[in-house]
Specification:
Blueprint (H helix, E strand, L loop, with lengths): L7 H9 L4 H4 L4 H7 L11 H7 L3 H6 L1 H12 L8 H15 L2
């Protein structure tokens, strides 16, 4: 039986540790993005945001509070001249956000 898909927002928290957050000091992915929208996950600058932008629309419908947080991060982004691919993903996300 195939495992159900788990959104990166949850899976990133689960992979850190099974101990409570207070004990590990782990920061949620959205909190990291709010502090630094181009935060580097494990691969390259902006990969955390890229992962979040690829989360399917149905997830955002079920978590409007998180959608508001991501939208706020996107509103505060500037100077994406060096990140053309990321800019395209943001535009696609905003387009799908409007289509909810």
């Amino acid at each position: 039986m195939e495992e159900p898909w788990t959104p990166p927002l949850r899976s990133a928290e689960h992979t850190r540790s099974s101990r409570p957050k207070a004990a590990t000091g782990a920061t949620s992915p959205l909190t990291r993005l709010e502090r630094d929208p181009l935060a580097e996950g494990d691969f390259y600058v902006g990969d955390l945001l890229t992962a979040v932008l690829r989360i399917p629309r149905y997830y955002w419908r079920q978590h409007p509070d998180q959608l508001r947080r991501v939208s706020s991060v996107l509103e505060n982004l500037s100077d994406l001249d060096e990140h053309g691919s990321l800019r395209q993903q943001i535009e696609a996300f905003r387009g799908s956000e409007l289509g909810q």
